[in-house]
Design goal:
The complex is a heterodimer of chains A (about 450) and B (about 475). With about 450 residues, chain A is an alpha+beta fold. Chain A folds into two domains: about 220 residues, PmbA/TldD superfamily (PmbA/TldD fold, 2-Layer Sandwich); about 220 residues, no CATH class. In chain A, about 25% of the residues lie in helices and about 40% in strands. Chain A has ten helices and 17 strands. In chain A, helix 1 packs parallel to helix 2. Chain A is globular, with a radius of gyration of 24 Å. The N and C termini of chain A lie far apart (about 60 Å). Helices cover about 25% and strands about 40% of the residues of chain B. In chain B, the strands form three sheets. In chain B, strands 1, 2, 3, 4, 5, 6 and 7 form a seven-stranded mixed β-sheet that branches. In chain B, strands 8-15-16-18-21 form a five-stranded mixed β-barrel. In chain B, a hairpin with a 4-residue loop joins strand 5 and strand 6. In chain B, helix 1 packs across helix 2 and helix 3 runs parallel beside helix 5. The longest helix of chain B has 19 residues. Chain B is globular and about 70 Å long. In chain B, about 60% of the residues are buried. The chains are: A alpha+beta (about 450), B alpha+beta (about 475). At the A-B interface, strand 1, strand 2, strand 3, helix 2 and helix 4 of A face strand 2, strand 3, helix 2, helix 3 and strand 7 of B.
């Protein structure tokens, strides 16, 4: 993949877009994508398979009187691009006019975003990936005798080009690599397990070693898990669990969900939705960020926004369509068919995670879990995938068969601490978060 | 590309693999054409379609797997893909612990045609839109001023998979699939609730022609409206009765994934070493059946070209078998079960469920709940997941009802449950004669998505952890 590759994809997108307008579309945009990747999968402490994949596609959106038609073709040939443009326009004619549609994004300049592409990642071989995963098998088994390790190492290079018939023309090349490890430790009928990972766009940001050892250390902690009594208690979400709370806010802040009456954050723009400890920034310009990029799926230039400041919702996340429909500023969060956040950065607090736990006389610590709300009702009801009982400020025993529940708006208001120390991944700040008064259900 | 082209090219890849003397090679061509439309708040919001096709080749070299795929239709790119797969297998082989040994299976040569009454590709878009509009209008009439949002969707697809391997298998399987769904959001003050109904079949447009609004959109509207006045569910351990949709979720998440032989062999399943052992109550018999006509998870042959069938996983509480690929069957010294399925051309076949169910019993729902003083009836199964190695699972119910003094009482809102698989199966007390198999959906495993279905009777369990708010 190369600069010539981006030029080729730009030309394909232009061909598709031109074909759509020629076939009767008032407006059209087209995105051509090409990706190749390698992965090595590990099962039961040995390599299971090594895979190489390559794919490409041309996706066109055409608009006739605001009605939308879309077509996706596999492959990146001029023929498939022309077909995609023509078919999208025909489908747009069959959809119905939309009075809220007032046009596509106008051309503009794009920000420079550093650290999206690394030749060292693009040049990785399957042998190197295999070395990473097998190294993690060894490190896990050094920590936990008899551990059973599964996992994967993968590297991907992607390039895309996006154009519209108003003159938008954007292209981007990026890389990413990841290592994930799942460790299972058995002692008789007793089982402890843990999952951990690392992922980055740049080789210098990736630390592929040591994940297995880390996961094995955690897996050992989850032997002899048990249930607890059902109660209303403070719940502390660790770095790998807290992000689901923030993701839940972002999903409900989608202007599409709000405008369609499907979000529990409807009517709350400018209002308090959480405690002053809650501040969330969406920043797609972070160098090397996993969700960083130059523009959104509509071709609107990316920029940094504050979504929630000291508990007050500052804006909804918009696409070009929802922004124009609401008469508000576009925040650049279109995914061509939906709306999604980019790099979510929570403001950190003043106390350490250890201090936050030490203040809990009786509570629950969630290390792995998905406390993700129903974005319509706002209700959370989630399994503690891996967690601990907190007693007198200490993690005392691992939990099984335990759930946490509440309404998201109550959870956010009851969020009373965000740690100052956090796990850092490219474009991610993963702190420890405490929520008072959650309903904890368990087996005792 | 017509199918003749891929068949010829697949044969070329197979012949080259034979020339290279690899232990085993399997070349698969997969293509899908799909179309979808969505009506939202009275307007045809999006109309779309697309197509994807390509070839993936898997090889076994020195006892190790390599895989490569391409979307290029060109013969030289397919042969180049084979070379890549061989190179990848050599990487795997350099870090191999135990060589792969494949089970024997008859080398099938066959063509499976899709079965449908009304070819969706021949149905004009206007007719599809009219049908979808009918569903939406019926829902709107029911919910009236409570409506916050209405969404109604339709989609169809035509899929082709051609499998050719170095053992002589050469077969093509075709399927036509149709989906129709309706989602309604209703609001009363600050309370918002949503309900969704979906029907999906292997078949054509007859699904829509035969589906009255009362069984789809009106049903969703009634469910959403009733949820507006439902109360939060209680938290804690309660006696429970699962609706067939929850039973389907439970048997898929809790038992099904643990009975996939790849999980068993890799130390990820809590069922390892328990064949022939009692793992559940006498009333629990679990079957994975790929042969149910038109069901979402059915398939005649799997992606390895093996004839699929009906597997009894648990019989009267005793673990009887697992679902197998050629590889897992080879390792365990049993017959393959035709359960190795691949998501498109760009993925390797892995062990998957098809239509997984608990078989019905003799009791009525009324008899099941008659002796429960305080419990919960969990309904509207939505999603779930499992940590196989521990058998710890969760399932989400869109709604439920309290059971008080042997009667169905007040309604409760959406809630998740959790449990340990072996404890739940042992705690099953009885199953009903009423039976439903209406959980068509997509199951995720190792990054692959696969069409499955699930179902069962009403299932009564001694107690389960309910993650409620009250």
């Amino acid at each position: 993949m190369s600069e010539q590759g981006l030029e080729h994809l730009l030309a394909l997108s232009q061909t598709a877009c031109r074909e759509a307008t020629r076939a009767g579309a008032d407006f059209a945009d087209a995105m051509a994508v090409r990706e190749r990747g390698l992965s090595v999968e590990v099962e039961k402490n040995a390599v299971k398979s090594s895979d190489a994949r390559a794919w490409g596609s041309v996706a066109v959106r055409a608009f006739v009187a605001g009605g939308t038609g879309w077509w996706t073709s596999s492959g990146t040939s001029p023929k498939s691009a022309r077909e995609a443009g023509r078919q999208a326009a025909e489908l747009a004619k069959a959809s119905e006019p939309d009075p809220d549609f007032v046009g596509l994004v106008a051309p503009s300049s794009y920000p420079e975003v550093a650290g999206l592409y690394d030749e060292k990642i693009a040049a990785l071989s399957a042998s190197e990936l295999a070395g990473w995963v097998t190294g993690n098998i060894d490190s896990a088994r050094e920590v936990a005798d008899g551990a059973v390790v599964a996992g994967e190492a993968a590297a991907t290079t992607q390039e895309w080009a996006l154009v519209n018939n108003l003159g938008v023309s954007a292209a981007q090349r990026s890389t990413s690599a990841s290592v994930s490890v799942h460790v299972v430790v058995r002692r008789g009928d007793d089982v402890g397990s843990f999952y951990d990972w690392d992922r980055a766009r740049l080789r210098e940001d990736l630390e592929p070693e040591g994940i297995g050892a880390r996961a094995a250390q955690e897996a050992l902690k989850y032997l002899q898990s048990r249930t607890m009594e059902t109660a209303s208690l403070p719940v502390v979400f660790g770095p790998l669990a807290s992000s689901a709370l923030f993701a839940g806010v972002c999903a409900a802040a989608s202007a599409e969900e709000v405008q369609r009456g499907r979000s529990f954050l409807g009517g709350k723009n400018g209002e308090s939705i959480g405690s002053p400890h809650l501040t969330l920034v969406d920043d797609p310009l972070i160098p090397g960020g996993l969700a960083s990029g130059i523009c959104d799926g509509d071709g609107f230039p990316h920029g940094r926004i504050t979504l929630v400041e000291r508990g007050v919702l500052q804006t909804y996340l918009h696409s070009n369509y929802t922004a124009k429909k609401a008469g508000e500023e576009n925040t650049g969060h279109s995914t061509r068919g939906g709306i999604a956040p980019t790099n979510i950065i929570p403001a950190v607090g003043e106390r350490t995670a250890a201090e936050i736990v030490s203040e809990v006389a009786d509570g629950v610590y969630v290390a792995l879990g998905r406390p993700y709300p129903d974005s319509t009702s706002g209700q959370v009801s989630a399994l503690v995938d891996a967690g601990f009982r907190i007693e007198k400020g200490r993690l005392t025993y691992p939990l099984k068969d335990t759930m946490v529940a509440g309404h998201m708006l109550e959870l956010l208001q009851n969020l009373d601490a965000v740690s100052c120390d956090y796990r850092s991944e490219p474009g991610m700040v993963l702190p420890t978060v405490r929520v008072q008064g959650m309903r904890v259900a368990s087996g005792d | 590309m017509t199918e003749a082209g891929p068949r010829r090219q697949l044969a070329g890849v197979r012949d080259e693999a034979l020339r290279l003397k690899v232990e085993f090679a399997e070349a698969r061509y997969a293509a899908i054409q799909h179309s979808a439309l969505m009506l939202q708040d009275g307007r045809a919001d999006r109309v779309g379609a697309g197509e994807r096709a390509g070839m993936g080749v898997r090889v076994l070299v020195d006892g190790a797997w390599g895989f490569a795929s391409t979307e290029s239709p060109e013969p030289e790119d397919w042969l180049s893909c084979l070379s890549d797969a061989v190179a990848m297998a050599k990487v795997s082989a350099s870090r191999l612990e135990e060589p792969v040994v494949l089970a024997q299976a008859p080398p099938v040569v066959d063509e499976v045609r899709a079965e449908f009454e009304i070819d969706p590709t021949g149905v004009p878009l206007e007719r599809k839109l009219d049908a979808v509009r009918g569903y939406e209008e019926a829902s709107a009439r029911r919910a009236r001023e409570a409506i916050a949002n209405l969404m109604t969707g339709y989609s169809d697809s035509h899929q082709t998979e051609v499998v050719c391997n170095t053992r002589g298998a050469f077969l093509s399987s075709e399927s036509v699939r149709t989906i129709v769904w309706h989602a309604i959001t209703v609001q009363d003050g600050s309370v918002r609730q949503r309900a969704r109904e979906l029907r999906a079949r292997q078949g054509g447009f007859e699904l829509v022609e035969e589906m009255p609004a009362e069984e789809l959109s009106v049903k969703a509207a009634d469910r959403a409206l009733s949820l507006l006045s439902a109360q939060p569910a209680p938290a804690g351990k309660l006696p429970a009765v699962f609706h067939p949709s929850i039973a389907g979720l439970l048997v898929h998440e809790a038992l099904g994934h643990n009975a996939e032989a790849d999980h068993v062999l890799t130390g990820q399943s809590t069922l390892a070493g328990k064949l022939g052992v009692r793992i559940g109550a006498e009333c629990i018999t679990v079957v994975d059946d790929a042969t149910i006509p038109a069901s979402w998870g059915s398939h005649r042959y799997d992606s390895e070209g093996v004839l699929a069938g009906r597997q009894v996983l648990v019989e009267n509480g005793v673990l009887r078998g697992f679902m197998h690929s050629l590889e897992t069957a080879g390792k365990m010294g049993v017959e393959p079960t035709g359960s190795a399925r691949a998501d498109g051309f760009a993925n390797r076949p892995i062990v998957r469920m098809s239509n997984t169910m608990i078989l019905p019993g003799e009791m009525s729902l009324e008899e099941l709940i008659a002796d429960i003083d305080l419990g919960i009836l969990l309904q509207a199964g939505q999603w779930g997941y499992v940590w196989c190695e521990k058998g710890q699972y969760t399932c989400h119910a869109g709604e439920g009802h309290m059971i008080r003094n042997g009667q169905i009482a007040e309604q409760v809102r959406d809630v998740s449950i959790s449990g340990m698989m072996l404890e739940t199966l042992a705690n099953a007390l009885a199953v009903s004669r009423d039976f439903e198999m209406e959980m068509p959906g997509s199951c995720g495993k190792n990054g692959q998505s696969m069409s499955v279905n699930g179902g069962g009777p009403y299932v009564k369990v001694r107690e389960i952890v309910v993650g409620g708010q009250a």
